[in-house]
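Continuing the batch. This is chain 6 of the set; chains 1 through 5 are on the previous pages. Same settings as before, nothing changed between runs. Recording input and output for traceability.
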Amino acid sequence: MDKFMNALLLKRFSLLQAFILLCVVTLIVMLVVITMEFVLAENLRQRFGETDWVLPSLVATVLLTVAAGIVTMAVLFYRSKLKRPLELLKQASENISANDLSFSISYDSRDEMGELISVFENMRSQLEKNVKTLWRSVEERKQLNAIFAHDLRTPLSVLKGNAELLSTYLPEKKLSEEKVLDLIHTMNLHILRLENYTEAMNSVQKLEDVPMQHHTMDTISFTTVLNDSAEQIAKQSGIRFVSNSEYDNTIIQVDPYIIMQIFENMVANGTRYAVSQLNVHYDIQEGMMKITVSDDGPGFSDEALLKAVLPFYRGEVWDASEHRGLGLYVCKLFCEKHEGSLQIANGPNGGGSVTASFRTQVDK
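Output for chain 6:
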């Protein structure tokens, strides 16, 4: 039967054309069979004479032939034009119901069922693209929320430390007016930073969209603020903090909040592995500002040197409540946004060393 259907080349015809063709072929075959039945009936009549059973038998045989022809035509039409595409559509629907879009369907026919399967495949392909886009959007938002929570911890810690310092020593008048004003200035800076950061996170869909806002400031005031934050972070871990610089006081144009995020993530990463001391070195020359944070810990492993800047890489640290593996990844992205880079290495005397560089306009 399959060879017969292939011989008819039904796949090249539309459903209506195939139906008409099968009707014509079936009609011709039935006419031939019915003719043969009449010939047989005539032979029987001549052989047995006029009998009562020949005519009823002929009528019954003709009716059976017509019924068999109609059924055969319907089966041929179904098997040749409907069975395979319906099976494909059923299997594809089951896959989609099971949230499996990693398949494709095709049907080599020029009829309406072939067009239907082609349209269904286009729909599946577009649905797969939309699901992947939605999945990426959800993952990017989850990652952004994780980074947001991660980066809020440092300014909150600085505010908490300064508030505790004021509440402890201010009533006893152990703080000078200059020191109090300095602490308030630092707290206001971090509060403004939190406000700007929260506003930015509400408007962006992924970390790369965080806007850059350059401000003009002098290097001494800026690095003093950075050192205050680093001292608070190191103090919480019981680590000694030491800083040194290699620049003359200049006026620079940078995004201070971006750089503070980079710096605090580097310091937090350094205090996590430092044994007793954390070192920060500032260098500004040829339109570039470099900040190197080094520690006296065990240094980076060979694997960490390759993967430390990847998101959620945590090495041997698995306490998710304390370390999510986002700090250096954020540093890398923000350095690149600031036309710079992030370099990871081990120091000549041991310990890890992370250098962040970013472009800045410098006026002497």
